[in-house]
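hey so i finally got around to running the thing on that chain from the lab meeting. sorry it took forever, my laptop kept dying and i had to restart like 3 times. anyway pasting the input first so we r on the same page abt which one it is
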Amino acid sequence: MKRFWLLFSQSVTVLLAAYFVVGTLKPGWLPLRAGPSSASVAVIEAPASSAGAAPAGSFRLAAQRASAAVVSINISKNAPRSRQQMDPWFKFFFGEQPSEPQVGLGSGVIVSADGYILTNNHVVEGADEIEVVLNDSRRSVAQVIGTDPDADLAVLKISLDRLPVIVLGNSSALQVGDQVLAIGNPFGVGQTVTSGIVSALGRNQLGINTFENFIQTDAAINPGNSGGALVDTSGNLMGINTAIYSRSGGSMGIGFAIPVSTAKMVLEGLVKDGQVTRGWIGVEPNELTAELAQTFGVTAQQGVIITGVLQNAPAAKGGMQPGDVVTKVAGQDVRNVSELLTAVASLKPGVAAPFEVQRAAGSSTLRIAPGVRPKPRQMAE
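ok and heres what got predicted. didnt touch it at all, straight out
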């Protein structure tokens, strides 16, 4: 009996040892054991969506379509040398003092397979070197084709092949409440897409440009976004992001973009002629006030009052007089000076257009053929 128990205990010991070795080195050989390691948790998983399908309400496709054509712009300016640095005695005692170049960031939009890029004039103004960085990480030095400070737009050109090109949309069809996306490189963090709606149209009298007809949006626009794209939910270009209203330097939900209709006109003018040709009639316009209306004896309640007309200018030749209140230009209502300037600038020089005016003696329609708007005089240095 004692021998039997000894044999039994030795067998059990060998089996336990074998089980321990196998469980340690080859646990898969053993049957599954109940315990925390094999317990399953009941969860609910979303069904797998079909490849490439965007979720409902997603702007993925619009962002993908437009983002490839939005670029980052790095600019550098040589620091101006001070008079002290130019002084021979200063150089004798201290030697040549190096000047640190100034750098800046912005965005741009490729609008042609030929390499033409739209951006803001204030992004590239005064730059000594401009580098464009594509969304696929390619880089190229850019050439300035032309600038239009009056509209705060500039056209650059790069020489690369297989360039992605954005599709130009119809900004005139935009309505308040339409969804839009802003794409650019804010603060240099890399390409960023933000969404919002069109908050207002035709914003002017902001003191940003000479000709203002901004799209206002609450899509987040921050420093570095200037020159980037404002697109619709199909990825079509609706505007060039230009400015923000901010007390902190960051987005506060009030951003402004130049309509693509204006940008296209500037693009064609700069590429074809090297300048933008705008209409001009030669008047001194003022906002209509009760005091000015009383002074000139007019009863108009809306429009822009003309307080001066240049001799032999297109307006004078067309019969316009001081005291006239312009209410419409080529069928377009004008309610303030900014709207009048924009309406006249859009006219084709040499082609007569109707101007509806109100005078003390009554209403009249004048036919005026605008001239070419003179370039602004450069400030004396």
